[in-house]
């Protein structure tokens, strides 16, 4: 018998500039041009940017105004989420030809556990290459992939050779790969944590690895143990084909900022109607109602209330939302409102995505 350790074979597939790529695929006139899905030159937030736009510094989550400033030739395209969902479903059909252990993270990325796959192919790298080629040939857009022994390393690896490339980190390469990695590229280490690590002299994986678990827990709490393990290639999270829905939410960004609570209630009523339809369709109810408010200066606030019973009816949701709205005065005019329902009555529902079909 061999004493060699056995490793899982995990692939992380990440579509390249997914929303923008779909728009360029469907409209040849947009190919090769800098486009931003979402936003406008006057307001709104960019949902995705083509690689041509990214060269100018345009990226998701920046304002349309800033995108226009960075790239005067930018073309703004309204998002078509029904179309993106349709394309995503086609891609997932390809995934399931290889394994049923598919864990979607969003419409454009997913983990696949191909340790035991339907093709009987022992090479995860060759499987990733074949999957990417099928997506390109059968769907029409490109994808990148990361392949390694766990989800954490595979996720990071998928970004190395983007776009339209892949990176395999073999078992004996994992620690060296992570040691050389800039700390800002560690999945789960955001801007705030990155700055804190810089202040502690942690700039690379090697620096992180030199710190004791006690040191990391002292400065980062429970996350410290996570950082201590992942930099050593230890991440045991399994690929879960049925991800647990923790909340169902709907929100809308307005073309004109709202300053009157009366107008806000009108919009919240519409959001609650759409939310109720989805809740009823999937037989989901919850106890915690949360009102999300984003102000004109982009600061965000949430207000929540938990009930002793489950609800899903629009009338009950809006009653709580109205109470939360008037809980305190608005700090400023409002550019976005959202409602979410959490503390749900089920732990086995598949992820529910709510996209309101309002004018963008």
Structure description:
The protein has helices at 18-26, 51-54, 64-70, 81-95, 124-139, 151-157, 174-180, 191-199, 205-209, 213-220, 223-230, 261-281, 314-325, and strands at residues 10-15, 35-37, 48-49, 75-77, 102-106, 109-113, 143-148, 166-168, 247-258, 286-295, 300-311, 334-344. It has 360 residues and is of the alpha+beta class. The chain has a 5-stranded mixed β-sheet. The N and C termini lie far apart (62 Å). Mean pLDDT is 89; it is low at 348-360.
Strand order of the largest sheet: 5-6-1-7-8
Q: Which residues sit in consecutive blocks of at least 5 with pLDDT less than 50?
A: 348-360
In angstroms, what separates the terminal alpha carbons? 62 Å
Assembly level:
single chain
Topology at a glance:
Blueprint: E1 10-15, H1 18-26, E2 35-37, E3 48-49, H2 51-54, H3 64-70, E4 75-77, H4 81-95, E5 102-106, E6 109-113, H5 124-139, E7 143-148, H6 151-157, E8 166-168, H7 174-180, H8 191-199, H9 205-209, H10 213-220, H11 223-230, E9 247-258, H12 261-281, E10 286-295, E11 300-311, H13 314-325, E12 334-344
Parallel strand pairs: 2-4, 7-8
Antiparallel strand pairs: 1-6, 1-7, 2-3, 5-6, 9-12, 10-11, 10-12
Helix pairs in contact: 4-5, 10-11, 12-13
């Amino acid at each position: 018998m061999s004493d060699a350790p056995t490793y899982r074979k995990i692939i992380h597939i990440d579509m390249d500039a997914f929303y923008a790529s779909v728009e360029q695929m469907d409209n040849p006139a947009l190919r090769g041009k800098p486009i931003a899905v979402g936003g406008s030159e006057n307001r709104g937030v960019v949902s995705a940017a083509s690689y041509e736009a990214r060269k100018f510094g345009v990226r998701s989550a920046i304002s349309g105004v800033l995108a226009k400033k960075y790239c005067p030739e930018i073309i703004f395209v309204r998002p078509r989420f029904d179309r993106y969902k349709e394309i995503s479903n086609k891609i997932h059909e390809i995934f399931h030809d290889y394994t049923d252990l598919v864990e979607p993270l969003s419409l454009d990325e997913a983990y696949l556990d191909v340790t035991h796959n339907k093709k009987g192919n022992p090479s995860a790298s060759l499987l990733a290459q074949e999957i990417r080629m099928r997506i390109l040939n059968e769907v029409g857009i490109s994808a990148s992939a990361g392949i390694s022994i766990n989800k954490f390393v595979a996720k990071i690896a998928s970004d190395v050779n983007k776009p339209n490339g892949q990176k395999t980190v073999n078992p004996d390469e994992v620690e060296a790969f992570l040691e050389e990695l800039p700390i800002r590229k560690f999945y789960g280490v955001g801007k705030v944590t990155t700055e804190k690590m810089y202040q502690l002299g942690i700039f690379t994986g090697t620096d992180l690895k030199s710190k004791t678990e006690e040191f990391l827990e002292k400065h980062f709490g429970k996350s410290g143990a996570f950082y201590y393990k992942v930099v050593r290639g230890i991440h045991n999270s399994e690929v879960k084909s049925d991800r647990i829905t923790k909340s169902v939410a709907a929100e809308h960004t307005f073309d004109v900022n709202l300053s009157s609570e009366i107008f806000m209630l009108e919009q919240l009523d519409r959001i609650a109607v759409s939310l109720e339809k989805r809740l009823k369709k999937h037989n989901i109810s919850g106890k915690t109602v949360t009102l999300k408010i984003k102000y004109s200066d982009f600061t965000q606030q949430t207000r929540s209330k938990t009930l002793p019973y489950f609800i899903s009816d629009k009338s009950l949701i809006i009653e709580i939302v109205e109470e939360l709205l008037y809980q305190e005065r608005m700090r400023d005019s409002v550019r976005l409102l959202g409602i979410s329902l959490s503390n749900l009555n089920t732990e086995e529902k598949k992820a529910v995505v709510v996209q309101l079909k309002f004018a963008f």
